[in-house]
């Protein structure tokens, strides 16, 4: 729990432990072992897979050849694939081609407003307004200072 006083506490059913305090705009741990978990039976492959952002099996098994300090790591892949990787690396099929485009010029016009852009353009514009004709795909963009 982040409190207004600047403290961070870990609250469970039967206890409350202070983990850190706000110092300026960052939080500093007050308990050195606050976030250290005991995990004696964890597979080193799984540990490094999570630490390195879920790289592929091939990439992780090649690491000891290129990274000093991993030569002795026991990188034995588990039999199952991490479920989060399956979902995270899956791809969506592209949308089908539009089948209901109008043939009449200006029969349907798509528009979008982008912004505010934090760094204004040379002319001071912070917004971009676009119009796209559905039939011809002719596009016109306007750069706007105010919305």
| Major sheet size, sense and barrel closure | 3 strands, antiparallel
Note the total helix count. Answer: 3
Strand-pairing-aware structural class:
alpha+beta
Q: Which regions contain 5 or more consecutive residues with pLDDT less than 50? A: none
Arithmetic mean of pLDDT: 81
What does this structure look like?
The protein has 147 residues and is α+β, with helices and mostly antiparallel strands. The chain has three domains: 1-34, no CATH class; 44-88, no CATH class; 109-144, no CATH class. It contains three helices and six strands; from the N terminus they run E-E-E-H-H-H-E-E-E. The strands form two sheets. The chain has a three-stranded antiparallel β-sheet with strand order 1-2-3, with no helix packed on it. A three-stranded antiparallel β-sheet has the order 4-5-6, with no helix packed on it. The longest helix has 10 residues, at 57-66. The model has no long low-confidence stretch (mean pLDDT 81).
Offer a quick outline of the entry.
The protein has 147 residues and is of the alpha+beta class.
Which key terms come to mind for this protein?
3 domains; 147 residues; single chain; 3-stranded antiparallel sheet; alpha+beta; 16% helix; extended
What's the structural blueprint in terms of helices and strands?
Elements (H helix, E strand, L loop, with lengths): L6 E5 L4 E8 L2 E4 L14 H8 L5 H10 L16 H6 L20 E6 L12 E7 L5 E6 L3
Antiparallel strand pairs: 1-2, 2-3, 4-5, 5-6
């Amino acid at each position: 729990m982040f409190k207004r006083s600047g403290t961070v506490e870990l609250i469970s059913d039967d206890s409350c432990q202070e983990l850190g305090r706000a110092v300026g705009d960052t939080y500093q741990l007050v308990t050195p072992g606050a976030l250290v978990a005991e995990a004696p039976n964890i597979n080193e492959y799984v540990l490094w897979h999570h630490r390195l952002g879920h790289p592929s099996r091939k990439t992780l098994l090649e690491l000891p050849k290129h990274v000093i300090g991993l030569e002795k790591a026991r990188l034995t892949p588990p039999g199952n694939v991490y479920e989060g990787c399956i979902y995270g690396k899956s791809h969506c099929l592209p949308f089908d081609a539009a089948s209901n485009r109008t043939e009449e010029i200006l029969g349907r016009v798509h528009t979008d407003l982008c912004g505010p852009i934090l760094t204004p353009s040379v002319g001071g514009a912070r917004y971009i307004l676009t119009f796209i004709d559905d039939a011809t795909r002719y596009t016109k963009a306007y750069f706007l200072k105010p919305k």
